[in-house]
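Sorry to interrupt, but I need a hand with the structure work. Please put the record directly below this note.
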Amino acid sequence: MRISDHRYNRDRLRFDLAVRMLHHGARARTIRTWTGLSKDRQRKLFQVYLLQLPQPPERRMRSKLPHHASCFLRSSTLGFEATTLASLFSILGLICTEKAAEPPATWLNPLLRGEAFCQAYEIYRVLYPTARLSFEHSLFLLESLARKDGVKLNTCGQCQRLYLSDAVRIEQSGCGCGEQRLPLPRRRRTLIRPPLHEERSL
């Protein structure tokens, strides 16, 4: 009974994780890598559980993923969202930081790691309703941080916050928070223009 119970719980976790990833628009290859379910099993789960929902699932990503993780630092807005998502990965024990050099215990079980990743992505979507990073882009960010390929997560020595930076960047003691100033809006001159009928008369 213990072996069957363990197998039942493992299969239930696999199906739950697959449905969760299908709802976020994950690719079939990604779901198979994390759960081991074939495309036919995924198609049946999609038809049974997701087509009946009032809110349709996200569309699957059809375009190619970027080749280098430096694309997450392409703009300040995208870099801020990627930093938030990377911080959630660190909080949930998905990646190593400077304070935790050893891999977390979550890495030993791919199903638990997949659930933690989905939880981080769902929190990220709540914080950013118009998020720019899809499920597959978020997974690519997680894999890049785990391999320290292209980007890395640092801890600022001044404000102690986590920030995302280029992996080949020289180590710094801070994220630059001490050098930033409060941007004040510039005062523009108000041009008093005559009404439209007066301009025509001129």
User: Anything to note?
Assistant: The first strand starts at residue 151 and ends at 155. The longest helix spans residues 2-23.
